[in-house]
Inverse folding.
């Protein structure tokens, strides 16, 4: 096994299952989903709402006796050891006894309060692990409330995860959000460091979206213009097809927006309320993956497309 190891807890809500498994595959390169996974990759938890915590592993072994002996070689100070709650084969009293036993094997004395290191032991697939645990603080939640928003807007949690997924897949890409709406996707893209341009045809909505960006200390980059007029090209177009009270458009107009997006970008993340599979097939586009995302009564189809 590699020298640097991290044990991740991957969790999601039931309505996020399809997208979560796509993210899981991109992060860990595995088709079979697991709530816990060991990897040599060190991910920033704040980029991934599906990552609950990670353990930076300092010691692991299949044999418990050898594992405890190896713990004696570790030199932690001001530490606190947490109990592993996730193994259903161990009852409460067994977990407590193991925690005490492991704590006794560590150098120095652990603390209940005022500690600087939070340690966690784990028993996963017959292997014992111990390391420093780091929990996701979910800072994206600070951006849920903004000056201007409307009920049909994409949830911040979804936008946060989509943007970081695209950044992982295409780290050096150029992006365009040609129907920016209230700016939620643009906010997440700028905070993730993406090279993104954004348009919004509705003048009032454009002003409100830029006010949302400035509320979070970001530059007001959203331009008030018609995406159909641009001839610039990008690696990725993120198209949340407009609908509803703010920018109601006919189906034929939506198809024009979709077709133009494919003209100006190599890849398209299509967010829609309808399935445009027949059109994409006629245009010889490759749909790499699809999933649904829900918010209250609104259901979106997410399609990752290569032309």
């Amino acid at each position: 096994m590699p020298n640097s190891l991290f044990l991740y807890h991957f969790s999601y809500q039931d309505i996020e299952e399809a997208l979560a498994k796509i993210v899981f595959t991109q992060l860990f390169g595995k088709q079979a989903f697991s709530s816990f996974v060991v990897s040599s990759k060190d991910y920033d938890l704040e980029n991934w709402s599906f990552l609950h915590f990670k353990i930076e592993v300092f010691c692991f072994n299949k044999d418990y006796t050898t594992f405890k002996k190896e713990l004696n070689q570790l030199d932690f100070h001001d530490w606190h050891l947490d109990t592993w709650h996730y193994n259903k084969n161990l009852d409460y009293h067994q977990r407590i006894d193991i925690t005490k036993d492991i704590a006794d094997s560590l150098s120095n004395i652990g603390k209940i309060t005022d500690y600087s290191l939070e340690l966690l032991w784990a028993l996963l697939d017959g292997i014992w692990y111990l390391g420093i645990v780091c929990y996701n603080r979910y800072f994206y939640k600070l951006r849920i409330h903004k000056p201007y928003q409307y009920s049909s807007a994409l949830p911040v949690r979804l936008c946060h995860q989509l943007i970081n997924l695209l950044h992982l897949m295409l780290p050096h890409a150029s992006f365009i959000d040609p129907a920016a709406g209230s700016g939620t996707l643009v906010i997440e893209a700028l905070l993730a460091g993406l090279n993104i341009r954004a348009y919004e045809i509705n003048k009032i909505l454009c002003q409100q979206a830029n006010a949302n960006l400035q509320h979070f200390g970001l530059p007001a980059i959203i331009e008030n213009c018609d995406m159909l007029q641009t001839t610039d090209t990008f690696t990725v177009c993120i198209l949340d097809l407009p609908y509803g009270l703010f920018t109601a458009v006919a189906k034929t107009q939506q198809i024009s927006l979709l077709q133009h997006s494919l003209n100006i970008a190599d890849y398209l993340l299509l967010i829609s309320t309808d399935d445009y599979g027949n059109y994409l097939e006629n245009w010889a586009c490759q749909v790499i993956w699809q999933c649904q995302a829900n918010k209250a009564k609104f259901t979106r189809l997410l399609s990752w497309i290569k032309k």
